[in-house]
Each structure stands twice: as structure tokens, then as C-alpha cells.
Amino acid sequence: MKNYTSIADIDDLEGIIREARSLKIQNPESKVGTGKTLGMLFFNPSLRTRLSTEKAAKLLGMEVMVMNVGTDGWALEFEDGAVMNSDKAEHIKEAAAVLSQYCDIIAVRAFPELKDRKKDEAEQVMNSFMKYASVPIVNLESATGHPLQALADAITINEFNTAKKPKVVLSWAPHPKALPQSVANSFVEMMQRLEVDLVITNPEGYDLAPNIRKNTKVEHDQEKAFEDADFVYVKNWSSYENYGEVLNIQKNWTVNQEKLKNSKNVKVMHCLPVRRNVVIADDVLDSEKSIVIQQANNRTFAAQVVLKRILECAK
Ligand code: CP
């Protein structure tokens, strides 16, 4: 694996899930990351991604440097040919090239602005690092995807699944703020590659991008979608159609025990952070149905297997 910017960078999905689960059981003696440095750049806040990726790198023997670009570093210019006479002090051309002198892998988190769909879909930040850095790039959540989260999700479903072909439901849920579609996008792309029966449920106006949905079934009746589900993955996202907007939804889409009454053995997932009693009710999060903590734990092994494969490829 040369980079990990989208799940398309995984060519053997079953193999990488197997390897992650084996790393989880037994941390290998040989440290492929000894003498190597991971640089992590955050344009946005993080708890899980930051700490699990740092832990993963250290388990491989790597050194880790973290920078909150928005507050610690110079404001970066990404436009080619820009006349830099305002607030942006450093161009990505120099920044990425210099970081490549200090780091063996650069990992970047950069959320979308959710104002201009075309601009967000161009993935300017991630693609600029890909273009101007001379070392591998890892996506820590970009404008349109969160591939490390999706790999952790696949590992978690693999661990908890007892069905031959599990029914997996991705459910939209309310949120007071406009959130990216990144987690939902990568989750759908990941599930489309696995032996699962995937259903997306969301209110009208919240359909994900057509190039993400492809032929996946979209059910606008949430309770119908939940019938006999093995896994319900709950996540808010802002409208794709009315790009970046939070629409006025009449029905209550918060996931609670009552809604899960027809899916007896269901496991409930969420990438976290989760707003209790807005996105998912306490009666679900505090029940045995919830596997959100186990899911968050798997972020470490998803990151570890990705960093390991990149280091092995660069040898
Ligand atoms: N799920 C996830 O990416 O969490 P953080 O935003 O805390 O990193």
C-alpha cells in the first residue's frame, strides 16, 4: 500500500481485516516502524483519530509528531499562482516538501467547508499533500471520506458478525450542526465491498451522492429498514442535495430501543463522538446492543495495519 487516502487503496480487504485482527491479538515482536516518523496534521479537532493513530504508530516502533495546523502552524495557501499578500503565510508547495524531510509518513485531517460541493469534492487539501509531499499520505478524514474509520467499522462487523450474510443498516439521525458526509460515504463504500445486505435509511432530502449510493437500497421508512437488522450504524450527515444544509425534518429519527424492537440481536454502531438523546438515546448507548466502544478500540488496529503496510511497501 503506497498511500491510504480512500478505501480504494485496499486491494485485499479480507486480508487486511484478518491482519488487523491478528495484530489486535498479538502485537508482533519485529517493529517495522523503528527509526521512522509519522507526522500528523490536524486542520480540525479529533479525539479517537489522533490518539488511536498515535498509539498504532508507537506499537509499530515509530516516533510521532502532531501539529494542529489551525492554531499552531502558519496558515497555508493551496491555490497555485496565488499572490500571497494576505493572511496565508506559507504555501503547501514548501510546507509539504519540508514536512517530507522530517516525516516518513504524513497523515492529514481536513474537513469540508460544506459551502461549495464542487470545491469539497475536489479534495484540495488531501490532493495537494499527495502532489507536493514526497512521502506516503494517510487520510485522517477528508472532505468526502474517512477511510480509517471505515476500516475499523469493517473489522468490528467482522468480529461481531454471526450471520452468513448480515443485514447492515446505515441510519441517518438528527444533529444540531451541519456535519460532513465523509463517514457515511466511506462506510457505504466499505460495505459495498463486503458480503453484507446493506440498506441506507434517511429522510427525503438526505440521500447520499449517487456515485456513493450506486445500487444500494435506500429506505425512507427508518423502522421498516431496521426490521431484522444485524447491525445498525447510526450517523448524521448534512444534505447532499441542498449541499451542507440541515433540513427541517418533522419525524423523530433519534435511534432508541423502541425502534429496534424488531431487530432482536442487533448491534448498534457509531463512529463517535455521539450526542446522547439526539443521535442515539441513552437506553441504546447504555445497553448491550451498543458496540461503540469496541468499535472505537478497533481504530488502533485499523491504523496499525495501514501504517504497517505502507512502511513495508516503502522498504
Ligand atoms: N470517529 C472519529 O473520527 O473520531 P474523532 O473525530 O474524535 O477523531
UniProtKB/TrEMBL annotation:
Q: Where does carbamoyl phosphate bind?
A: S46, L47, R48, T49, W74, R109, H146, P147, L148, Q149, C271, L272, R299
Principal EC category: transferase
Which pathway does this chain act in?
A: Amino-acid biosynthesis; L-arginine biosynthesis
What Pfam families does the record tag this protein with?
Answer: OTCace (PF00185), OTCace_N (PF02729)
Q: Residue limits of the Aspartate/ornithine carbamoyltransferase Asp/Orn-binding domain?
A: 182-308
Q: Which InterPro entries does the record match to this protein?
A: ArgF'-like (IPR043696), Asp/Orn_carbamoyltranf_P-bd (IPR006132), Asp/Orn_carbamoylTrfase (IPR006130), Asp/Orn_carbamoylTrfase_sf (IPR036901), Asp_carbamoyltransf_Asp/Orn-bd (IPR006131)
> Which keywords describe this protein according to UniProt?
Amino-acid biosynthesis, Arginine biosynthesis, Transferase
| Range of residues in the leader sequence | none
Spell out the reaction equation it catalyses. N(2)-succinyl-L-ornithine + carbamoyl phosphate = N(2)-succinyl-L-citrulline + phosphate + H(+)
Q: Which residues form the Aspartate/ornithine carbamoyltransferase carbamoyl-P binding domain?
A: 3-159
Q: Does the keyword Amino-acid biosynthesis apply?
A: yes
Give residues annotated as binding N(2)-succinyl-L-ornithine: E141, H175, K235, R275
GO terms under biological process = citrulline biosynthetic process; L-arginine biosynthetic process via ornithine
Q: What is its EC number?
A: 2.1.3.11
Xref: Gene3D superfamilies: Aspartate/ornithine carbamoyltransferase (3.40.50.1370)
GO molecular-function terms, A-Z: amino acid binding; ornithine carbamoyltransferase activity
Q: Which family does it belong to?
A: Belongs to the aspartate/ornithine carbamoyltransferase superfamily. SOTCase family.
Q: What does this protein do?
A: Catalyzes the transfer of the carbamoyl group from carbamoyl phosphate to the delta-amino group of N(2)-succinyl-L-ornithine to produce N(2)-succinyl-L-citrulline. Is essential for arginine biosynthesis.
Q: Note the subunit structure.
A: Homotrimer.
In its UniProt entry, what is this protein called? N-succinylornithine carbamoyltransferase
